[in-house]
Amino acid sequence: MHAATDPLAIVDHEGKERPAGKIQPYWNPYLAGIGLGLVLLASFVIMGRGLGASGAFSSLVATGVNAINPAHARANSFYVDYLGDGTSNPLMDWLVFEVIGVFAGGFISGALAGRLKATTEKGPHISPRGRLGYAFFGGALMGIGAKLARGCTSGQALTGGAMLNLGSWTFMLAVFAGAYAMAYFVRRQWQ
Amino acid sequence: MRTHLSRLTPNQALGLGALILGLGALLIGNPSGGATATIDARELARIVQTEVDHVKPVELADWIIKGKADFRLIDLRSTEDYAAYHIPGAENVEPTSLMDYGLQRNEKIILYSDGGIHSAQAWFLLKTAGYRGSYILLGGLEGWKDEVLFPHLPASPSREEMATFEQSREVSTFFGGTPRTGTASDQPSATQALPKPEMPSSPAARAAAGPPTRKKKEGC
Amino acid sequence: MSAPFYKFGLFGDNIGLVIAFVIGIGFGFFLERAGFGNARILAAQFYFTDLRVFKVMFTAIVTAMLGLFYLSWIGFMDLALVYATPTFLLPQVIGGLILGFGFVIGGYCPGTSAVSAATGRVDGMIYLVGLITGTFVFGEFFPLVERFYVATPMGRVTIPDILSLPYGLVVFLIALMAVGGFAGATWIEKTVAAKRGAVKP
Fold first, then answer.
1. Would you say residue C94 lies in a domain?
2. Radius of gyration of chain C (CA)
């Protein structure tokens, strides 16, 4: 799969052939996509639900709020949705375990391909500190948007997309529209 | 043709594959078969034989007492019979309107009629229409009366029988029935007074219902 | 045997959690393989230099969509038993826009930031902190936006439902759109690369 003669192998994203070092190029996007699609399909077949990510962090936040101020958490129906009726630990949740798996899977793949590296991904014209500020702010916007839209790129776009869910496709168009509209203003960060 | 195909790059081949499968979908149209339901007769026969499609009256009573809400109980009898008595929480749906009643295919549906014939027929109807979670109350309303409302203790009970009877006595009182002991009361249940068809409210039931609990989110 | 297995009671919640972990590993693995642990690759989508996000995402959607369709057609899978998020059109459009802003500003989405943090990217880790903060902010302000959150409810509705089109036709159109989109995306990448090559030799 990684042999240079394999027509499916692709050069890295900068369009350069990597020297025959440790670091492998990323996969052909269509192969990675099929892999991702099959994982999603497996989740449908085995569990009857799709993938997700943002929900796990909501469970985490709800658990934290509940630990500090239970009455406050109980009075807020957003937290209650993730805390359940109190009969089970909100962290013993499907999405929480799935996201722990995502960390593990990402680490495994990165390690096998020699891509583990403590670094900050950024364009050449921005300081690492500036990039981290953007990362924090973008993450916060993502948290708000994902909750308002009832899911993120995994839970809505991928999962709902495959199920032809009307809301998910509308959501997907809105995501691309929002990102393209904003791209010009933060181009310094990436280019 | 062959040479054309072999000239495709792998990416193009994948794209072509997706298009061919998409074209197949276009021709098939409806993935769940639509009006022409496909019945897996062998699968149905297996279900019937292994009796996994049954719910015992005692089990149902237990669920009602515990306030479980993950099923819908359907009374297939006439409106008059339903008004006279029905199992607490049951909805009255006559077989003719079953399909338009708005049941979900992913719901657990428990059917009952007087005996077992109507519910068995309705069960087949639902199964063939893709309602996979359909169940029959074993023995129908007769079974419910015999085992839950008016349980009876055999003439010379063993210790074990005594113990189970004590349990049934509680369940029976919960639903407003009368337990029968000894041979004297071994009469047909029709002579017994039927309780009012309302949801009983005992401390246990209220505790089980409690404040409206919310299930945890299934989505993101 | 019928799918989804969990909904037919083949195993309980605890086994479900183990399966969640295993499925998560698969998810994270392929995200990383696709290059989505790297914010520069994800952001490149929005500057037309590398349209991997579009390619990977739509390949995954088409794969799972076709899989679901055929598994349902052969009677193995009951689509009605698969959980689908109900549609609330307006909050989903506004939420999607905000999420899109966050995507290009932060460089990740929640799933990909987990992969990036796991492979050592500091920006991914900070992004996760931001994500948790944002979720907390949303939670605290939830009582204020609750009415908007449940606005325009449409229930569980699919594109074939709303357009009254056969399911298979929509599947075909999406597959067609995706394959056409892939060809277009590759063309755009080449054009942009040629332009940039001309500007910066």
1. yes
2. 20
Domain span at residue C115 reads: 85-157
Q: Which domains are delineated in chain B?
A: 6-144 (3.40.250.10)
Question: Residue C47: inside a domain, yes or no?
Answer: no
Measured in whole angstroms, the distance separating CA B107 from the mean position of its chain's CA atoms is 9
pLDDT score of B206: 40
Q: What is the pLDDT of residue B158?
A: 78
Residue in B10, B14, B214 closest to A84 by CB = B214
Distance from CA of A189 to the nearest CA of B (A): 30
CB B56 within 8 A of CB B138: yes
Tell me if the pTM is above 0.95.
no
- Tell whether B49 lies on the interface with C, counting CB pairs under 8 A: no
With 0-12 / 13-18 / 19 or more C-beta atoms within 10 angstroms meaning exposed / middle / buried, residue C198 is exposed
- Which tens digit of pLDDT belongs to each residue from B115-170? 888 888 888 888 877 777 888 998 889 989 888 888 877 777 777 777 778 778 88
Residue among A29, A47, A131 minimizing CB distance to C123 = A131
Asked if residue C27 is part of any domain, the answer here is: no
The answer to whether B10 contacts A81, with C-beta atoms less than 8 Å apart, is no
Q: CB of C178 within 8 Å of any CB in chain A?
A: no
